[in-house]
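Audit log entry. Action: structure prediction of a protein-small molecule complex. Ligand: zinc ion. The ligand was supplied as SMILES and no pocket hint was given, so placement is left entirely to the predictor. Protonation state taken as written. Sequence taken verbatim from the request; no trimming, no tag removal. Recorded inputs:
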Amino acid sequence: MADTDPITREEWQQAVDFAHTGLLIDSARQYGLITGGPEIDLERCEELLRRGADQGIWPRRNAVDLCLPTFLTSGERPECPRCGRLLTTERSRRAQLCEVCLEDSRHQSGGQPA
Ligand SMILES: [Zn+2]
């Protein structure tokens, strides 16, 4: 779907990293290395990789390190590591903090949580 396409170069990089990781997870499942886990849309992964490559965007070397944790928790209900609230918004999932903690850390002048 076009409205879920990455827009900025940064988003494309992230999408390509995720697509790369997604394909890897699916391969591992086919080989029986893992069972269960998130459902991977292979066609979408391949499409994003192809279209990323057209723009000169390739998976980063640490793509899997960056993306795997998100994949592994994507089938679950993600919780805020600080307070245990569910991460309900896209923004909070990306930050791995609930909206309340996000607000909190913004109010702290240093911005660096302990
Ligand atoms: Zn929280």
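Audit: result stored. The chain has a mean pLDDT of 85. The two ends are 40 Å apart (CA to CA).
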